[in-house]
Amino acid sequence: MLVVAANDRYHGAMSDAAEPLLESLGAENGFAVDFTHDATVVRDEELARHAVVVQLHLAPFDMTKDEQDALQRFILRGGGWVGIHAAGLTGRQFLKAGAEYWGWFETFLGGVVYSPHPALQRGTLVVEDRTHPITKNLPERMEITDEWYEYDRSPRPGVHVLATADETTYKPKKPMGDHPLVWTNPAFRRMVYVGIGHDASVCADPRYRVLLRDAIRWAGEPR
Asked: pLDDT tens for residues 118-160?
């Protein structure tokens, strides 16, 4: 597993807390973990050494065009992908001057565009699919602290929704109604997006540990 973590100050504490968590998951479950903050490793020859890429808060617009193309090739060849929280920051509003928008990634994520999130606060994640390998070991409801990312619309029905936000348990910025936060995209065999995970406190939560463990296992299984 290759973990490529963001360098930005907004997600540094969680990335730091996630490194030992992911390394312990690897040790307990028999997979090697290469952890880096250096996105230049996202190139064909390095990706070919790994079964799964974990995009830990690394936003798509913070990757170069060459890195984006290499990751896209890896995924289209059947490589596993686990995106965590800020990995889902789609939208042209983030583009630097002269940069090309990675439209493929928006489609890959489920065809949704990120919109500003509400304040960091406690809320409840509802596990919708309790039979899927990624979520079958989770409780029906999980109270956590997060930013509760919002999008321009629900990605449903184009994705397979595993868990949603209960918007009645916190104060949304712009309520979505149907608010998925963990999903797979059936058009890509081994893709799972985990929208929760901003606050470092989740790394001490055994339920989040189970979620990441089972997401990585599922993404790494050849199909």
From this structure: 999 999 999 999 999 999 999 999 999 999 999 999 999 999 9
**Look-up of token digits 């928006």:** 106
Place of tokens 């312990």: 24
Which CATH number applies to 2-220?
3.40.50.880
Strands 160-166 and 180-184, bridge-based pairing: antiparallel
Q: What share of the chain is helix, strand, coil (3-state, %, to 5)?
A: 35, 20, 45
pTM for the predicted model, two decimal places: 0.97
Contact 19, 9 (CB under 8 A): no
The residue-averaged pLDDT of 96-107 equals: 94
Nearest to 133 by CA among 221, 53, 215: 215
Q: Could you report the per-residue pLDDT of 167-176, keeping only the tens digit for each?
A: 999 999 999 9
Are the beta carbons of 102 and 60 closer than 8 angstroms? yes
Q: So where are the chain's domains?
A: 2-220
Please provide the DSSP assignment of 5-37 as one string. E---TTSHHHHHHHHHHHHHHHHHHT---EEES
What pLDDT score does 223 carry?
A: 60
Given a contact cutoff of 8 angstroms between Cβ atoms, the answer to whether 106 and 156 are in contact is: no
